[in-house]
Amino acid sequence: MLIRLNQAQPYVLSLFRFVVGLLFAFHGAATLFGVLGGTQAETGAWPGWYAALIQLVCGTLVALGLGTRAAAFLASGSMAYAYFKVHQPEAFLPLQNGGEPSAMFCWAFLLLVFTGPGSVALDRLFGSRSTAADTEGAPRQDKVPAVPV
Hints:
globular; 63% helix; 6 helices
């Protein structure tokens, strides 16, 4: 059973990345354009409009798996800022201050910074970077022999 779960891990990670990115992009689109039941922010208003722009762009990039780690890092930081500047001053716990979405997005994106996009991503299609999984079976080349041969 564990073997099958481990084999599915890269695909489930890709699905997780896609869903989280899509939800984040939808949130940004709702704030930027007033669609999907959202209230449109005034253009250029700090911090709401800029946060929505980050949400739309980074959410789209993460959903596509394009520049996933960088986009997820920026998205995670923006959600940490949102939590500590907007929600946390209201009350200590996220349940009390309405900051659950900010906290969850922050941690979900931070996870993607460290795990990468999974196996189904545009990053993989373009071959922009080799990953630890690609070089896992390769011999280590970090040790230099003491005596030349």
